[in-house]
Amino acid sequence: MRRVAVAGHVCLDLVPRQLPHGGLAPGSLVEVGPIEVSLGGSVANAARTLQHLGHPVRACAVVGDDDLAEVLRRQMIGPLLQADLVQVPATTSYSLVLEPGGQDRAFWHHVGANAAFGAGALDLSGIDLLHLGYPSLLPGLVANEGEPLLALLRDARRQGVTTSVDLAVVSPADRASGPDWERLLPALAAECDVLSPSLADLQSILPDGEQLASSFAKRLVEWGAGVVAVSDGEDGLTLRAGDHVRLRAGGAALAPLADAWASTSLHQRAVPLDRVVTTNGAGDAVSAALLYALSVELGPSRAATLMAAVAAAVVSGEDPGADAIARLCPELAALGAIEITANQPPARFYRGGAQIAGFRGQAHVDDYTPEDWVASTVEVRGDEPTGLTRLPDGTILREAIAAQPEHWLGAEHVARFGEDTKLLVKLLDAGQRLPVHAHPDGEFARREVGTAHGKAEAWYILTPGTVHLGLREPVRQEELADLVARQDVESMLGLLHEIAVQPGDCVYVPPGVLHAIGEGILLVEVQEPEDLSILLEWRDFDLDGAAHGHLGLGFDRALAAVDLTAMTTERLAELVVASAGGACLPEEAETYFRLEVISVAGVTDLPTGYCVVVGLEGDVQIGGTGGTPTSVAGGRAALVPAFVAAPWLAGTGRVVVLRPPPP
Questions:
Q1: Using CB atoms within 10 A of its CB, is residue 151 exposed (0-12), middle (13-18) or buried (19+)?
Q2: The dihedral of CA 211, 247, 127, 185: what is its sign?
Q3: d(Cα 236, Cα 23) in Å, to the nearest integer?
Q4: Which residue, among 361, 363, 391, has the nearest Cα to 376 in the 3D structure?
Q5: What is the mean pLDDT of the chain?
Q6: Least packed by Cβ within 10 Å: which of 11, 134, 488, 651?
Q7: Per-residue model confidence as pLDDT tens digits over 37-66
């Protein structure tokens, strides 16, 4: 991910939501309805889009010393935004945005403090990609036939920064009083590594020139621009790039992409929409999507698709983020982390599911769906193929991994574990207390049941309650077998430690340890990828435990897998960690899996590798090189395959990351 700054024109947009019919008669009072006050201009619009895409951005602009400046400052905030605003003794720029129904917008604009924008408002230290918006609305840059503008871009390029410029429509009056754009535009193109105007911008600058987006794009590349994207509303956009030599000279963000982008020439159709809500900000969103694409190293075809999707989202009134992209262009969603929707096996033997529905924000329909198997390559024992996760395109995850194990799991993981994910994640809602039970270790499971794994597990607690874990005193197998045979549930529970747990607590359950989860608890569970339980209790459950509680071994053999020793308070303290953050399981658990709770405020890097991320709260996205963002806002889950290079978390909130053991 590259370090991106957007700079130049910023203003407040004042948008009346009801426009008068007819003209403005002197002395009349006309009802125009409520007014919407929002950030506008290239800097605000591009920065907003980058934030929606989960990309950090620095915003550089000039504001006045009036009340409007304070309104603007209050709105230009975000966990991914660093606002570098220079204040000058002037009025803050604003626009009256007039959008008659069914027509393109018009602007009544006051330049204000934007007149003072110049190179002094920019600090290029630590910047890889500089985007400059609307230079024609920055009088200080286009004075002296645009020499300050050209000097700024030359200086940035000398420092190895990739330069990007977006234009604005130039009115006939500005064309008459401002620089000679017919001379300035070719010189500007030569200093632009990236240029992303609209066709209307170009036609206003060169009214007697080319009329097609493709012709303008070709001409701008011939004048020296590296990458050109010309947007043309309903007719889509044209993307064109210079040769390998030109792109190699394109600075930190563009030079590494020279092989993939050189001599690109393509047309991207617009995404069909049922209705148009607004065209305000759509062009800036296209520019921002191109910046994002270059930053995360998308190829030109995918970049063009992303630009079209982002423009469609803005025009249809949606935030141009992960959800809109996945809906408008599903093929892009497959490039990054993959959202995993609910996968709740039906007709389980204990109640639950309502809290999972609440956590995920979906309707609850069945009281016996207490488990959500997330990114599962495992079937419910005895009810195959129930339990297996299907990807958004319908492919079974287990089959996708088997077809390309290194692609999904990574070469190091495959070298040690083959195509075994070594991981199963669940959401579990105990609508009633679970029965007393245990799980065998790997050696017992392989020898007696013929499975590849035993079942260690760990819980991250989401709602408070009581759990039962480990024997308070040692017990002989014969004594335990007698309690099972008589279904003396009270005595079995009495043998176990009873522990009150709170949200944020972590509990590790080694193989063989007797346990039960109390009613009312919602938790995230990570475990070995196997469905193996030795059920000692079934009296109050829809379950024939005498027939199905012992893995088909009979209890005489199955109880040999149970740890019959007493668990000391010191050992209990190792297994139950209160209000944990970070990596919160004992080191011994890493033999089986890893669990880490991460608080996100801005951007947090993730190690590359197969993992599952469950959003706990807030608004967090997963990004990565070569991909588009995926939301893991509270209640959502995503699979991060190994093919997502250099992944990161962006936004504000908390997530829990579940990983297989280290390779």
A1: middle
A2: negative
A3: 34
A4: 391
A5: 94
A6: 488
A7: 989 999 999 999 999 999 999 999 999 999
> What DSSP string describes 121-173?
G---TT-SEEEEE-GGG-HHHHHHHHHHHHHHHHHHHHTTPEEEEE--PPPHH
* Predicted confidence (pLDDT) per residue in 62-83, tens digit: 999 999 999 999 999 999 999 9
Rounded Cα distance between 620 and 612, Å, is 14
**For the residues 471-498, what does the mean pLDDT come to?**
97
The DSSP string of 288-317 is HHHHHHHHTT--HHHHHHHHHHHHHHHHTT
Q: Which among 370, 405, 502, 515 has a CA at the least distance from the CA of 455?
A: 515
* DSSP code of residue 563: -
What secondary structure, in 3-state letters, does 1-36 show? CCCEEEEECCEEEEEECCCCCCCCCCCCCCCCCCEE
In the block, tokens 């303008």 appear at 216
Q: Tell me how crowded residue 305 is: count the other CB atoms within 10 A of its CB.
A: 24
d(CA 11, CA 97): 11
Placement of tokens 């990007």 in the chain: 164
CA dihedral 269, 275, 279, 280 (to 10 degrees): -140
Q: How confident is the model at residue 19 (pLDDT cuts 50, 70, 90)?
A: low
Instruction: In whole angstroms, give the CA distance from residue 318 to residue 314.
Output: 5
Q: For 610-630, b where at least 16 C-beta lie within 10 A, e where not — what string?
A: bbbbbbbebbbbbbbbebbbb
Residue 515's DSSP bridge partners are 437, 469
Q: What is the pLDDT of residues 581-598, one digit of tens each?
A: 788 899 999 999 999 999
| Amino acid at site 616 | L
Amino acid identity of residue 191, one-letter, is E
Rounded CA separation 161/238 (Å): 24
Closest CA to 423 of 201, 595, 188: 595
Residues 6+ apart with CB under 8 A from 7: 43, 59, 60, 61, 117, 121, 122, 130, 131, 132, 133
Determine the Cα–Cα distance for residues 463 and 343; give it in Å rounded to an integer: 21
**Helix extents (H) in 258-395:** 258-261, 282-295, 300-315, 322-328, 330-333, 354-360
pTM above 0.85, yes or no: yes
Over residues 306-340, the pLDDT tens digits come to: 999 999 999 999 999 999 999 998 888 888 999 99
User: According to the model, what pLDDT value does residue 252 have?
Assistant: 97
Q: How many CA atoms lie less than 13 Å away from 235 in the CB half-sphere?
A: 11
User: Which residues touch 499 (CB under 8 Å, ≥6 apart)?
Assistant: 466, 467, 468, 469, 507, 572, 576
- What are the residues facing 655 on neighbouring strands? 598, 615
Strands 237-241 and 227-231, bridge-based pairing: antiparallel
Residue 445 DSSP symbol = I
Contact indicator for 348, 370 with CB cutoff of 8 Å: yes
Cα separation, 622 vs 606, whole angstroms: 9
* Residue reference for tokens 């918006």: 133
